[in-house]
Amino acid sequence: MIKILKLELAHPSLKDNRGDADRLLAGLKKELKTDRIKIDLKMLKDIPDILRRCNYKVRCVLAEERDGFVLTMVVVADKEKIFAGIAVDLGTTMIALCLVNLETKEVMGEASFINPQVKIGADVLARIHYADDEKRRKELNRLVIDGINNNIKKLCASCSILPKDIYCLAIAGNTAMTHFFLSLPTKYLIREPYIPAVNTPPIFKADEIGLELNRFANIFVFPNIGSYFGGDIISGILFARMYEKEEVSIFTDIGTNAEVVLGNRDWLIGCAGAAGPALEGGAAKIGMQAGQGVIDKVVINENLEFEVCTIDNLHPIGICGSGLIDLAAQLFLYGFIDKRGRFVDSRCAERLIVKDEIKYLIIVKKGEYGADADITISSIDIDNLIRSKAAMFTILETVTRTVGVDFASLSDFFVAGTFGYFINPVSAISIGMLPNIPIERYKAIGNSSLKGAVLFLTEPKLIETVDKIRDMITYLELNVNQEFMSRFSGARFLPHTDAYL
Amino acid sequence: MIKILKLELAHPSLKDNRGDADRLLAGLKKELKTDRIKIDLKMLKDIPDILRRCNYKVRCVLAEERDGFVLTMVVVADKEKIFAGIAVDLGTTMIALCLVNLETKEVMGEASFINPQVKIGADVLARIHYADDEKRRKELNRLVIDGINNNIKKLCASCSILPKDIYCLAIAGNTAMTHFFLSLPTKYLIREPYIPAVNTPPIFKADEIGLELNRFANIFVFPNIGSYFGGDIISGILFARMYEKEEVSIFTDIGTNAEVVLGNRDWLIGCAGAAGPALEGGAAKIGMQAGQGVIDKVVINENLEFEVCTIDNLHPIGICGSGLIDLAAQLFLYGFIDKRGRFVDSRCAERLIVKDEIKYLIIVKKGEYGADADITISSIDIDNLIRSKAAMFTILETVTRTVGVDFASLSDFFVAGTFGYFINPVSAISIGMLPNIPIERYKAIGNSSLKGAVLFLTEPKLIETVDKIRDMITYLELNVNQEFMSRFSGARFLPHTDAYL
Description:
Two copies of one chain form a homodimer.
Chain A: E1 2-8, H1 20-32, E2 37-39, H2 41-44, H3 47-53, E3 57-65, E4 68-76, E5 84-90, E6 94-101, E7 107-114, H4 124-130, H5 134-158, E8 166-173, H6 175-181, E9 204-205, E10 218-221, H7 231-240, E11 249-254, E12 258-263, E13 268-272, E14 294-300, E15 306-310, E16 318-319, H8 321-333, H9 345-348, E17 352-355, E18 358-364, E19 375-378, H10 379-403, E20 413-416, H11 417-422, H12 425-430, E21 442-446, H13 448-458, H14 462-472, E22 473-475, H15 482-490
Parallel strand pairs in A: 2-4, 5-8, 8-10, 11-20, 13-22, 14-16, 20-21
Antiparallel strand pairs in A: 1-3, 3-4, 5-6, 6-7, 9-10, 11-12, 12-13, 14-15, 17-18, 18-19
């Protein structure tokens, strides 16, 4: 996104009286072999003194844009100076930052913080409703911009640089978060036919939205495909490099929603789990968020005792999504639940309790593993898990069947998100959430939205690639897909009604 | 510079869920048959509501830039709305405005006012010295921007529109004035080798320099060739259309400086009168500024009596430059001055008076024509006139000889500026200020800088033409031209030492 180069210019004379900026631009155009270099008005005034001070030997920073370069900075050639860029993953719950040295391509530091919009509403929908009023939309915008500014300031301080040393920012997020970031209206995102204000936002300057970076820093926002398919996924595909492989691979991001992309260098097809009413809440509704003391692994032993592992080996306080998948797989395997996910009374025995007509299964008794209270899961938790696994699998099935690809032929199965790190593919396969393909093809790629943004900052000419990825993707609207709805019903069994696996 | 077009877009649907801005841009790209259309971040937020309010029938304003179009405005298709543009001639002394309806191409109104920077310094040099300090440079910038804003506001009010109805501004001025307008450093303009901060300023938005027009209005500043050859001349050449003629013609602008351009559609050569130390002050130093009661024409009759005409036929108060040329021609013709411009005592007789060792010739005696006092010219006035005419002629001669063109072969001799309206070519020829070509080839074109800017606003695709004109011009540096200096010495006689005419 940024090019840094040294240049020595011919000195002006009566016979070569070109203007300072024109002389500089001519030198850059020659060096970069392009005519498409622009200069910002606000830069012009500093150039005359800089050129003379450094005896016409300069170091220039150029920002790549869709239609060429823009001169962003001119400094004396030998000046010690760090040119940094920052990648941002703009999540609904968490915002992650990664500071990069643009010359060495090294990561200088990382940070993450809770999206300050959480205080307005935990989920996207609540924030969109809140933002119906323009004043409140500005408030949501202010929250996220201030949050990013403050955390960039802290991150810079910890890396001994200043925010003004940051010359570009690449940000990837879901479509609603991106709209809030750009202070765009969100109301049409959630009303049929679900139209974003923009798919491909223009590249603009930091100060246009109050970001406190170098004043000439360019901001790149990853484009979206639609209201439910955001730039975070495009960034993930960029990172997974699916768009350049010959073999067909699949990318899934299981977060608040579940997004899936299938394809190779010739075609990409995508769909998102929030597209159908059955999927509301999505995969993340199951279990609690991963954190200290949260159960992330459950094994039932031969004596039908439950063995649990917790994050950081602390006393158990609850169970996270991936732990729940493990648990459900074990419960099904040992007959604690039937194929509809209902508790089997005879097997559950004294582990089963009923409160307000809802059945709960005790996983960890108070006192075991140092637990302060019984840790239970309810029939509703199991039902949510089954709905989620059904949604996940149905999306995977629908998207592969639409293009006639077998799961078996997939070269890679990328699982993005924190969930991907913790999930045990064997368990996910055994409850029918993920297809039964060789385990080694599952690749947990972590925060691929952030990693794609980092890649974008450090490799040249990726704007065109990102635009190409966006344009390549055919978006499959699940909401209007009848086949999807019938498949979804069929997938609400453990592992499935058909012997697909 | 601006394109206005109506467009009807396909309604969005689940099968066509493109973002609002992307839908609009796709429509515009198809209509204009170009991929090069950009959109400003600040516009995005209004588009969703506008599109729905007008049922996807819109009227769009697009600004032409060097590398394509930028969407400037979207309104409901049938809304009554005036799209105006404003042309500005940014003179050292006077600033002229012309408000244009961009759809009908009609001039809506004109205005002119004294450049408020005059209170800092009457001439360019004084202002450049003042601007050495950055704070003062900002003060000069503020003066001109405020002056333009205030006068645009008044002009708009008189035409019943608002400044926010102005969608583009094209401004032409000399290089120093343009630098002040853009708040650029001017100190290197007057130091050898006389380098501007920029020749071709970027196109930018009104609010970037505090111009109170439509917030998305584009500002186009005519490019310069060098410190002494400004955008006002480029604009004049555009207006005179020299750059597209097959025949060779010449363009002169006699203001504070004298600028000359010679050429046709294949080549252009230019030079400026402030380039040599002998020309300091230039042609405008002679006489007073044209105004009520100023003598603009003098005839000596057979009885050697002086017959004068004044502007608006009021009592004479002084003599202007063009009047002085008339007078000098008559004085030489009737033997009142010799070929070196010295008063001939015997002929001047009692009209000659001496004060502080300087000789004065009485043109109008106190009481004649209602004059309140004697109106005189001094030997210094005559000397200045001769230096000016020598400078003018020498520039003309140098530039034509450099390319081997005869005066006789010139198809047109454009005389720009107020001076051009008042000058009597016969007198100017007879003192050797202008070459002896058929009178009808002299074309007084008035404020061609303003007229070129108006043309620029109303005809499509002139950005490229203006850049082409700028790049075509070979600038002849008179300061280092030995031949020029010897010709200049030779031209300090009436009409000349050689029988060139």
